[in-house]
């Protein structure tokens, strides 16, 4: 089959591309970064360099594809993230309509449908005659890397600010590890390996025939403090804790970081929902097929990075 993958060589798109290439499929990878062209070709795919906001470019990249994987990266240049996400989603929809792609997998998030605004998933409802699978993954294991500095300095974890603002894989990270999250502590949640998300995406790209399908993706469920202990044990800090802060403290921290007001409010809202356990209830209601990669497996990789001196 011919596949077009967006997301360049990101945490999901790279293992997804590698998997599809190994299976013998023809894969085209879209990236906005020309410097990624060589690396994309090195894993056996074709590079298409351009912007997903350019519907003409996107249509050319989608032409002839049997299926496409669609995600939208966060753009901090956009003060109106809701509008940005909707424009990008509409660009995808117009390109899919214009080229007759029969199957699409859209990366979203497990709380995307619960937010008061910013749910760009709904834009894909415009696609008639297309098999669309919306992937709703939980918190990425790889986001723990964003709290590495905080763990080194304080010995506890603040929320790495995973944001599924409109769905579609948006990611916001506090790289200094200075911002805490308004869920954590003994809150139960689901974590997921990007590799397991890639496996789920590949399966849906190849097999989904439903006009509209929602698939939740998770690898392991536990409390935030249990996750902190697993990470802590791997790095020699078994006492590691995940600090929970209030909604007010979270909002103040985001505003101090000069985040646009609407975006900050949406992030606080999303994490409040997780703190209340609502996405977890929906996750279990969907009876998901669990991934294979455990947090303890990821913790070994994290420990290597943690103990590697900075350049």
UniProtKB/TrEMBL annotation:
What SUPFAM superfamilies does the entry give? NAD(P)-binding Rossmann-fold domains (SSF51735)
Q: Where would I find the NAD(P)-binding domain in this sequence?
A: 7-114
* InterPro entries membership: Ergot_Alk_Oxidoreductase, NAD(P)-bd_dom, NAD(P)-bd_dom_sf
Q: Which PANTHER family match?
A: PRESTALK A DIFFERENTIATION PROTEIN A, PTHR43162
Q: What is the name of the protein in this document?
A: Nucleoside-diphosphate-sugar epimerase
Q: Which organism is it from?
A: Dinghuibacter silviterrae
